[in-house]
Write a structure and sequence with these properties.
Oligomer: single chain
Distance between the termini: 23 Å
Low-confidence stretches: none
Radius of gyration: 17 Å
Largest sheet: 8 strands, mixed
Number of helices: 6
């Protein structure tokens, strides 16, 4: 799912609308200057809302929430959702939920969706997309799950794991964008920024 409109020609600042340090790290890899803005929105999925729609809606709402304070800038917002059996998973609330998530993912395939929205200065949408990556976990023992949770890494991560950190050893294989699983599909974002003359 991807939508684009012609970019405006003027050069303006870029604002990453996200509290995620992983997205800041990824965007910095492109060598583009940007500011960071966190917004407070309701990040709960709606009853029966498909994960792909939830991810895009969250990105849209984050970008919209930033408009009142930074409507003069390009606004880039993203949200990542882990989808298992049609349900949307965000960050685990506690150790028990992290344990349950990892046990469910063990030996199984799941899909990571990242919705991304880019708004032009003034708020006109420049691009919207949801990128999907299929991830397969190897079989995990209860001891391995406990040891991983003890690192503290599962918390503040959708699906209770970080593919770029200690959680790398949990993964058997993936099909699609690696950076998407971290939280920002860099190839798509880089293309948008080039088209918009930001990069």
């Amino acid at each position: 799912m991807s939508e684009r409109t012609p970019p405006v020609s003027e050069r303006s600042s870029l604002v990453l609308v996200s509290a995620s340090p992983r997205r800041r790290w990824l965007l910095a890899k492109l060598g583009v200057a940007f500011e960071v803005l966190s917004v407070d929105i309701d990040e709960r999925s709606r009853p029966g809302e498909p994960p792909i729609d939830f991810a895009q809606r969250m990105a849209d709402e984050k970008a919209a929430a930033a408009l009142p304070s930074r409507g003069d800038a390009w606004l880039l917002a993203a949200d990542t959702v882990v989808a298992v059996d049609g349900a949307s998973w965000g960050k685990p609330r506690d150790e028990n939920e992290a344990t349950s998530m990892l046990a469910t993912l063990s030996g199984r395939r799941h899909t990571v969706y990242t919705g991304v929205t880019l708004l032009q200065p003034g708020g006109t949408p420049a691009a919207r997309t949801v990128t999907a990556t299929d991830v397969c976990f190897r079989m995990l023992s209860a001891a391995e799950i406990r040891a991983y949770i003890a690192t503290g890494e599962p918390f503040d991560r959708a699906g209770a794991y970080a593919i770029q950190g200690e959680g790398a050893h949990l993964i058997d294989r993936l099909d699609g964008s690696y950076t998407n699983v971290i939280g920002l599909p860099l190839p798509e974002v880089a293309q948008w920024l080039r088209e918009s003359r930001i990069l």
